[in-house]
Amino acid sequence: MLELRHLRTLVALRNAGSLVDAAERVHLTQSALSHQIKDLEDRLGSPLFFRKTRPVRFTPAGQRLLTLADQVMPQFRMAERDIARMAGGEERGRLHMAIECHSCFQWLMPTIDQFRDHWPDIEVDIPSGNAFDPLPALARGQLDLVITADPQPLPDVHYEPLFRYEGLLAVAKQHPLAKHAFIQPKDLASQTLIIYPVEHTRLDVFTKFLTPADVHPREIRTAELTIMMMQLVASERGVCALPNWAMTEYLERDYIKARPMGETGLWGTLYAAVRRELMEHPWMTDFLSTARDTSFSVLSGIRPT
Predict the structure, then answer these.
(1) For 57-68, what is each residue's pLDDT tens digit?
(2) Among 27, 59, 86, residue at a domain's last position
(3) pTM for this entry
(4) Cys-Cys with 13: which of 22, 68, 116, 294 at CB 3.0–4.6 Å?
C-alpha cells in the first residue's frame, strides 16, 4: 500500500541525488531507506529508479509517483496549516527577524513569501539598519527570530538547527591554491582574505580555521556583496571563505574554483534563534518547517542536522 512516507522518501531521493544524502534528509539509515524503497517496488511490481546512477535517474513508474507527490504533498501541508489555525483560532502575531548570514536571502525570501501566503495575519518584517546586536535584541524582545551560525548562551532563547553546510575557500581559476586538494591554515598566511564587514569572531574561517592555528592572513579586505567578492577573487585580488551554497552559481559558470578548508572540511550549522515562548505558536513551527524544506529544495551541498 502506497503511503505518504513513501512519497516523502522519493522526493528526498530526487532532491538529494543519492541514497546516502536522501537517508540523512529523512532521518533513516541508508540500509533502512533502501529496504523501504525495495519493499515499495515489490508491492508495485516495478523498479522506481535506476541503480548505480548519480544523480539518481527515475524510471517511468518513479516519475509517476513523483508527479503524485508534487500534487499531494503541498495539499497535505496546507491541510496541516489549516488545522493548526483552527486549533489556535485566527492567531495574530509578529515575526520580526534579523539575519547574521549575508548569503541567506537565496532561500529565506521564498520561505517568507510562502509563509505570508499561509499566515496573512502574522506581521513579517526584517528591520533595516545595524542599531542593535541581533541576538541580545532577540532576548530583549526587540526581535522574534535571528538566522545565525554563531549561537550564544542567552536566557530563554532556543536555537533550532536548520541545516549543516561546508565552508569552502574560493580562489581564482589560475591561482596556485586551485591545485591543492584542500587548504591548510598556513596557506592563507600569504594571502589577501576577502570577508564581509563583520567581526572576525563571527566568521568560521577565523574561529574554526585560522585562529586555532595561530595564522593571520597577509591582508584583510572587506566587501558588502557576494558578487563583489567573487569578482575580486576571479581577478586575483584575494581569496574568500563562503558557505558552499553561496558559490554554486559561480562554480557552475566556471567563474572561480573552490577548495575544502582542512582535510575533513570546515562544517558549520545554521540556526534559527527564537525566544522559547514563541515556539508554542503553530505559525512559528510552520515557519521553521518551511525554512528547512525551502533550504533543501533550493540549496546545493547542505546536509540535515
Answers:
(1) 899 999 999 889
(2) 86
(3) 0.72
(4) 22
